[in-house]
Amino acid sequence: MQIIDKFMMFHIAVSNMPKAKEFYADKLGLKIEKDYRQDDSRWWVALTLPVGGVTITLTTYHAHMKLGTMTLYFGTSDVTAAHKELSDKGVEVTKIKDDLHGPGSGVKFFQLHDPDGNLIHIEQA
């Protein structure tokens, strides 16, 4: 028996939910699946990629999480177009680089940060 057979969700601590929602939904294009708010310190927003997959849950309830400590990797079919679109939306992005997964990997990528300082890699998938 395989004990674990699917990765379902992970949480990202955020300091300002409206700003985080705007970044992940409007800038990156993730789909808001659920938005549950008890109050400003207990607010959860679940997002998915348009094609589904793992749920990313933004939360203002930090418990043992620290802001800005996550690194996320997203794939795109056109790294140059994604870079331009994010730049046009006012997102500060690095230059496109090569070899994300080590010398000779040939994987083109660029980086950016979310409003709380989490590092995001966008790579050519």
Give a short overview:
Helices cover 17% and strands 38% of the residues.
Could you describe the 3D structure shown?
There is one protein chain. The chain is α/β, with parallel strands linked by helices and 125 residues long. The chain contains two helices and seven strands. It has helices at residues 17-27, 79-88; strands spanning 9-13, 31-39, 42-49, 52-59, 71-76, 109-113, 119-124. The protein is globular and about 45 Å long.
Please list the strands of the largest sheet in the order they lie side by side.
Answer: 1-4-3-2
- Helix amount, in percent? 10-25%
Order of helices and strands: EHEEEEHEE
Summed up, the helix count is: 2
Question: Topology, please?
Answer:
Layout (H helix, E strand, L loop, with lengths): L8 E5 L3 H11 L3 E9 L2 E8 L2 E8 L11 E6 L2 H10 L20 E5 L5 E6 L1
Parallel strand pairs: 1-4, 5-7
Antiparallel strand pairs: 2-3, 3-4, 6-7
Please tag this protein with its features.
125 residues, 3-stranded mixed β-sheet, alpha/beta, 7 strands
